[in-house]
Specification:
Blueprint (H helix, E strand, L loop, with lengths): L4 H15 L6 E3 L11 E2 L5 H18 L5 H29 L9 E3 L4 H30 L1
Antiparallel strand pairs: 1-2, 1-3
């Protein structure tokens, strides 16, 4: 059923992933070669980050429409959770791999974009919880028949 609460949570997870196209992970006070050449570190700075964010958003949206197959819906939900974990880890690895030693004059300010994958993780976890509740409800109704 598409009007269930897990639809709202999966839609919010997709919004969290797609919001990364407009939000920064971090910004700097001065330009620096590489990712901070525009004074901002966001997902457009590396193709892997862009792919992870787009794939997470598309997978969360696709999961909404699999309401007839709850087991597959939960498996894809776990995939979205993995993408929500992989995105900040990949961003941190790329960032600290390139900028292990920043000059002292460059001050970093962490942005709201760091919270978006965490929100997507929480929303997808909640959606999976409600999908599991629906699955248990259907199994209990089948036992009564």
């Amino acid at each position: 059923m598409i009007q269930r609460i897990q639809t709202i949570f999966l839609a919010l997870a997709a919004v969290a992933f797609f919001s990364l196209f407009g939000l920064d992970f971090a910004s700097s006070s001065a330009e620096h070669a590489g990712f901070l050449s525009d004074k901002a570190f966001d997902i457009q700075d590396h193709i892997a980050l862009t792919v992870l964010a787009a794939l997470g958003g598309i997978l969360a949206l696709a999961t909404i429409f699999l309401f007839n197959n709850r087991k597959l819906q939960m498996k894809l939900g776990y995939g979205v959770i993995l993408l929500a974990i992989a995105l900040p880890l990949a961003a941190a690895a790329l960032f600290y791999g390139e900028f292990s030693t920043l000059p002292a004059n460059v001050k970093l300010t962490y942005g709201i974009g760091l919270a978006a994958p965490i929100l997507a993780l929480v929303f997808t976890g909640l959606a999976n919880r409600f999908i599991n509740k629906d699955e248990k409800l259907v199994k209990s109704m089948d036992r009564l028949r």
